[in-house]
Amino acid sequence: MTYIRETCGCCDCEKRCGALDIVFVIDSSESVGLTNFTLEKNFVINTINRMGSMASDPTSPTGTRVGVVQFSHNGTFEAVHLDDPNINSMAAFKMAVKNLKWIAGGTFTPSALKFAYDTLIKNSKRARAKVSVVVITDGRFDPRDDEDLLRYLCDDDNVVVNAIGVGDMFKREQDDEILGSIACGNKKRVTEMKRYVDLVAEDFIETMETVLCPGEHYLSNTLDLVFLLDGSERLGTENFQHVREFVQKASERLGLAQSSTDRMRARMALVEFGKESENHIAFPLTHDPALIADGIARMPYLDSSSSVGPAIIHAIDNVLGKGNARQTRHEAEVSFVFITDGVTGSSNLEEAVSAMRGAQVVSTVIATGSDIDQEVLMKLAMSDPDAIFKGKDLSDLSRSSFFDRFIRWVC
Asked: Can you give the residue ranges of the VWFA domain (predicted)?
């Protein structure tokens, strides 16, 4: 399955943020320094890496477009334009950003904001596109510049400005008032940090991903996805809640089928298992967000022993169905996602794995902690080590880095 995913791309899904224009305005003045300027560029690239694919046609009314302005003293501003026909892929954008050279001059921040709007945004705005601007600077600017221009972007209600102030290489504190003006007086959109290296920290990149694309979802090919949760006493009530939140998040981010007759996109089911005869179907295969949310909310914590083999057979018989009672769609990839540490009874396990193969199920395993049974996990993953997702604990499940990797794998 790993080979198929990596070569034909048939199981890939794509993150979608809607029609979105993002403009980064980055400080290239002398006080920033070459190393920190490189960190700014890496921040831009790492952030956009998380935003899904870019619009292949910059004139398209949909998709994500990205522009960059680097600024120093007046007359030195340089830009990667939103509507540049040569910026039609992630690779082209990365190359354009990497080619920006540190200017190492003065700091004309207000004029740079005017330049960003007049040159990149004003005449290339798309009717349905949200415009987000991210400004990175140490906050101060040359007194010869026009301070009134700090709020230049605020005159357009369709533009949202985020200001990131970083203490410069001389360890001086950024000017909070100036940052507040850049962010149009919205303190929630001002971020302060002491070091430029913090720009590329995983947690901060995750935060910016949410800020720029808060309602993102993933569009899959035809997918019928069944979660099988080990609800044994080893899980614990706190981790049980983490899993519920994870499944809920997956339902919100996957592109669910739009109707019962939709032959594309995803449907989901959730089965919690405990001891051999204890299997609880929280909700069957469905595209209905309300049914999914209600099933998750009502799902009890079994808090018993664990027997995964009978649970697999129960899911195949009662969730997937057989023969004329088959509930899966003809074109769908059928995927089982096990959330377990593998410490489970061995009853019927070999028979269950064989049944999965017979039902053409693709399996994925999520396991956390150090106390796991690797042999059982490998059986559940049908001998594919790449299909086993490991985390330190179950609170990791909803972290963007883990979650995105998992979603891209299953869909």
From this structure: 21-208, 224-406
> Which CATH number fits the domain that encloses residue 356?
3.40.50.410
Is residue 2 included in any domain, yes or no? no
Listed residue (353, 243, 376) closest to 300, CA to CA: 243
Residue (of 313, 342, 311) closest to 235 by Cα position: 342
The 3-state DSSP class for residue 107 equals coil
Closest CA to 139 of 174, 172, 107: 174
In this structure, the answer to whether residues 330 and 284 fall within a common structural domain is yes
Residue pair 196/164 in contact (Cβ under 8 Å)? The answer is: no
- Cα–Cα distance between 303 and 230 in angstroms, integer? 9
Q: How far apart are CA 56 and CA 35, in angstroms?
A: 32
Task: Tell if the pTM clears 0.70, that is, is over it.
Answer: no
Are 290 and 379 contained in the same domain?
yes
The amino acid sitting at 340 is T
Give pLDDT tens digits for 161-214.
999 999 854 344 555 788 899 999 999 999 999 999 999 998 899 889 889 987
